[in-house]
Amino acid sequence: MSGSSGELLGSDRDRFVVSTKYTLTMDGTDPNASGNHRKNLTRSVEVGLERLGTEYIDLLWVHIWDPNTPIEETMRALDDLVRAGKVLYVGISDAPAWLVARANTIAEFRGWAPFAGLQLPYSLVKRDIERELLPMASALEVSVAAWSPLAGGVLSGKFTRSGADGSSRVDRSAVSEGDLTIARTVDAVADELGVSSSQVAIAWTRARRPWIHPILGARTVGQLTDNLAAIDLELPDEAVGRLDKASAIDLGFPMEFILDTTTDFVHGSSGKQVDGRHAG
């Protein structure tokens, strides 16, 4: 937690949503200064409120799952801060689906504030969360903040277009040929639509799931302006299909087994007569 939203936002504070995280160590020599336990949470929030120059945090993220702290302790401590008015909503970043589902079930039965959002990596070159986390988020009606929607710049055209913006968080040697193939498909769709590659990649994250909100990591005003334009870009179904095919992943067990066998194995011939439910 750093910076001062008070200085930046001034009297308009209530018109903005201020979020921050806790979990990571504030003092590497002190085991009490890290993790998801109550002590670190309380200290982190108090320090954060002072540094941010605000009386409350709109959305507090648990930065990552801490296996050393019982999730019951974390949820109760978070709820205490919500009840005290120091935090309005809570979310969690980088945690397995089973843990989030368990945490929100505990919160529901005990009347505590549940996780309202998840912060997860999601892009055309990293679709792992489609296996468990996105179906869970859909079922529990939890929004998703998608970090690195451009895969560290890979999907911006950085490595596939001549004269592209040189900034990237990924070294070229670490980019696979498969990722470059996906990036070239993004470039082709962008050229056909007359928009930038970045806009296509960002728009894809929301194409079928409007409750996914990409986190933009622009380094210049020009990049930010370009990325923000993705909110108005509605990709044609054909383009979404091409991008999906180019970046497809195996869902693995159990989802592939369930999806491939449910109709005939469970319901028999009558299964084809039922529309069924769609787990987003």
Automatic annotation (TrEMBL):
Keywords: Oxidoreductase
Protein's UniProt name: Aldo/keto reductase
InterPro entries: AKR_Detox_Biosynth, NAD(P)_OxRdtase_dom_sf, NADP_OxRdtase_dom
Pfam families assigned: Aldo_ket_red
Keyword Amino-acid biosynthesis: no
Organism (species): Streptomyces lonegramiae
Residue ranges occupied by any NADP-dependent oxidoreductase domain in the UniProt entry: 6-246
